[in-house]
Amino acid sequence: AWDKEKQPDQWARLIELIQERNPNKIGVNISEHYGIADGLVQTDYSEFMEHLPESFKSRVVSAEPLAVSWVETRTQSEMKEFEALVQVTHDIIAEAFSTRVITPGKTTSEEVVWWLRQKVSDLGLDTWFHPTVDIQRNNEALKSHIEAFSNGYQETIIMPGDLLHCDFGVSYMGLNTDCQQHAYVPLQGESEVPEFLNKAFASGNRVQDIFTGFFALGITGNEILRSSLEKGRAEGLRPSIYTHPLGSFGHSAGTTLGMWDAQQGVPGSGDYPMAYKTAYAIELNNTIFIPEWDKDVRIMLEEAGYFDQEGFRYVNGRQETIRLVR
Length: 326
Known about the structure:
Elements: H1 10-21, E1 26-28, H2 42-51, H3 54-57, E2 60-62, H4 64-72, H5 76-96, H6 109-122, E3 132-136, E4 163-168, E5 171-172, E6 175-176, E7 179-184, H7 195-212, H8 221-234, E8 239-241, E9 244-245, E10 278-290, E11 295-308, E12 311-314, E13 323-324
Parallel strand pairs: 1-2, 7-13
Antiparallel strand pairs: 3-4, 4-7, 5-6, 8-10, 9-10, 10-11, 11-12
Helix pairs in contact: 7-8
């Protein structure tokens, strides 16, 4: 398209190409809501508009829809690799939440975190964020949601009776996973997870079912969020939903469905309509009162999901029972 020997001025050649092809729209890399589609610097934009003939200036538009669609769309071959990568993620969590890694009364939450980092390194993979492991237990008040994903819980010795939670994801071949699961450390004499915790966990699965049941082509993230929260609350649940596109980036471009601090909706990216062949980190929680502990617990879940013409499915299943550390 450009031969510098014939036309050394790149701007002049660009304008020639535009005039030759006479497009109805001229997409430029600017976007108010998506950084992935906002790479054109102001200097280049201004110079482009100075060179562009007046008759074409009204045709200049943001290329955001094209850029976001390209980033969010998953191919069939990608999904095969993605399914395998999610399985690896699940397998690592299963080992981390076992007595191969955890010795109750001795192992700390931070030691499990660094075991996760080392395991990923040993497998030749990468983490796209630092993992977290937090603990809920019957003699401690429920901390804020955001503390579960920060240093708010700090390093704590894992004890029998603890409800563990992790946030963990890996990167490989241009894809990223993002997963949150729970495990229980049995008390002496226990051989299974207490039924009251299983019931609490089921409430998290119910929020997932309500939420993904509203997935539909062309519906915005804010509409799905609002419908899901209304239905969940009508069933007596206390849900919070903060789901994001997943794939080429951990927090990718596409339909945003809530944020932890924006349960009323997300302007801009939350107004983007859902499309086929897109993947999401189905991230949410439900807070539920546990009489046996006389306190609230928070079931925090996150699993990779995929939406296409056949509907919604989890990329490689989801957690439906609390893992038992054994």
